[in-house]
Design brief:
mainly alpha; 9 helices
């Protein structure tokens, strides 16, 4: 029996399933006459269905590849002591924000282009929607993104008897590049944001390589996003990466 392993096109399929989930969200909202421009739609409908598409595709493909379960397929192990990485991720966001500001200053970039999701968060009003934002951005987002980048793609690249350095670099490039689906990043300021995201990806990839599991990188990613939410909720005039 052949050893279960991921193929490169599995990642494309998983990403495509997320796009399909987003399309379904838009079609459902349109059929029901709901507003698709507000943050309520974004965080209550779009993000959940998008992530459901990603996770569903991951589970189905993992089963088809012969993995015993999705956790084994992605090295997805979470232990109580992994939770401490939330604080590490939150702390990492501070020097990365300084790095972004320093690069913009060094390059003479005056504008600060916020990602579309950052603007959506800043416009959020109401306790229930804010709760949906926290779940979507600080829980679902980190879990699914790590499952794809430091899970599927990382394991596919590392393979058998290969050093993880290249896998860490490639997954970091892809993690940064995937954010180009946001048109607001097609600018000089956006290029700085992508560079900082690449640096963050390197940190997450290194954490994944050293611990051998997704738990720490998921919690660190969650802490980073959570710190961004705190800034946007309580200091809405600030621009976060």
């Amino acid at each position: 029996m052949l050893e279960a392993r991921w193929r490169w096109y599995d990642a494309l399929t998983v990403l495509g399933a997320g796009v399909l989930g987003a399309v379904v969200a838009g079609l459902l909202a349109g059929a029901l006459g709901a507003d698709t421009t507000g943050s309520d739609f974004y965080f209550w409908v779009l993000i959940p269905l998008q992530n459901l598409g990603h996770i569903g595709a991951l589970a189905l493909i993992a089963k088809g590849r012969g993995f015993p379960d999705l956790a084994e397929a992605l090295s997805f192990e979470v232990e109580p002591d992994h939770a401490r990485w939330v604080l590490a991720g939150a702390a990492i966001s501070i020097p990365l924000a300084w790095l972004a500001a320093g690069l913009r200053n060094l390059l003479g970039i005056e504008e600060e282009t916020a990602q579309a999701i950052v603007e959506a968060v800043a416009e959020t009003r109401g306790t229930t929607t804010m709760a949906a934002v926290v779940v979507g951005v600080a829980v679902l987002g980190p879990v699914v993104e790590e499952m794809i980048h430091r899970g599927l793609i990382y394991r596919m690249l590392v393979g058998k008897d290969r050093k993880p350095v290249m896998a860490v670099i490639v997954t970091s490039v892809l993690f940064s590049a995937i954010h180009l689906v946001d048109p607001s990043l097609y600018s000089a300021a956006g290029a700085v944001t992508l560079l900082v995201l690449f640096a963050f990806g390197l940190l997450l990839g290194t954490l994944r390589a050293r611990t051998g599991t997704l738990g720490p990188s998921i919690f660190a990613h969650s802490g980073f996003n959570l710190m961004t939410l705190v800034v946007l909720f309580f200091f809405p005039t600030s621009v976060a990466i």
